[in-house]
């Protein structure tokens, strides 16, 4: 779903979700999230080709715990309990997401599932949680 398909209010957990945006929209989303005092984390996926590299980039970009296990279950656990980045809500901004999608569609889809689960879990706790993935306009969502 595009962030522009809804009247997105980053202060409302009812709007939690995974959104596809243009690369240049990430700055706008970061500004909006910071204005709402959300914890903002940027993950650059330029040239990212597989799960190992993706999880490594996420571990480097996010202040994840030192014992982060570099697997999907560990990522899901960290995103459900973001005590590693204290804030009342979170926004993850993934630049150049098409690189991973083109190189490893299976793990791209797994990432989307993990992010979607995290947004749902946060909504159940009335905590804003958003993921914005930059995909080119000509890339089907």
UniProtKB/TrEMBL annotation:
Pfam families: Barstar (PF01337). Signal peptide: none annotated. CDD domains: Barstar_evA4336-like. Gene3D superfamilies: Barstar-like (3.30.370.10). Residues 40-133 form the Barstar (barnase inhibitor) domain. Coiled coil: none annotated. Belongs to the barstar family. This is Barstar family protein.
């Amino acid at each position: 779903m595009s962030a522009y398909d809804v009247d997105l209010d980053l202060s409302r957990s009812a709007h939690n979700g995974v959104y596809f945006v243009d690369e240049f929209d990430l700055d706008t989303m970061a500004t909006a999230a910071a204005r709402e005092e959300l914890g903002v984390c940027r993950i650059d996926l330029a040239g990212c080709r597989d799960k190992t590299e993706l999880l490594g980039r996420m571990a480097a970009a996010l202040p994840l715990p030192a014992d982060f296990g570099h697997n999907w279950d560990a990522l899901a656990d960290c995103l459900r309990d973001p005590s590693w980045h204290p804030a009342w809500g979170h926004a993850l901004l993934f630049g150049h997401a098409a690189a991973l999608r083109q190189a490893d569609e299976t793990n791209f889809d797994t990432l989307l599932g993990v992010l979607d689960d995290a947004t749902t879990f946060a909504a159940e706790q009335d905590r804003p949680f958003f993921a914005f993935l930059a995909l080119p306009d000509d890339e089907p969502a």
